[in-house]
Amino acid sequence: MSSQARHTAFTHFDQFLKPEFEIPKTKAADEEDFDPVEIFCPVPGVPDDPEKRIMGGFLSMTVDEMVEIFDPVVKEAAALVQAQVAEAEKRSGHGVTRD
Hints:
Elements: H1 3-20, E1 38-42, E2 54-55, E3 58-62, H2 63-92
Antiparallel strand pairs: 1-3, 2-3
C-alpha cells in the first residue's frame, strides 16, 4: 500500500469511522429486511483483493471487526479509570460517588 493510500485510510478512519461508529441494533422479530452493517474505508490505488475484502478502492469491514479494533482500547481505558477511582478512594479514605 502506498503512503498516500495509507494516509487516506488512516485519516478516513480517524475522522469519520472512529467517531461515528456505533454497534447497530440487532434484528427485531418484525424486521424482515435487516442487513448487518458493512463499513467501508477508502484505500485508493490498492488493487482489488476479494480475499482481503478490498474492492473498487475500498476495504470492507464488519461491525464485529470494528469491535475487535476498539475492544482492547476500551478495556484499557476502563482499567485506567478504575485504577484512578481506586486511588482517589484510597487517598480520600472513602468511596467516590457519581453525581
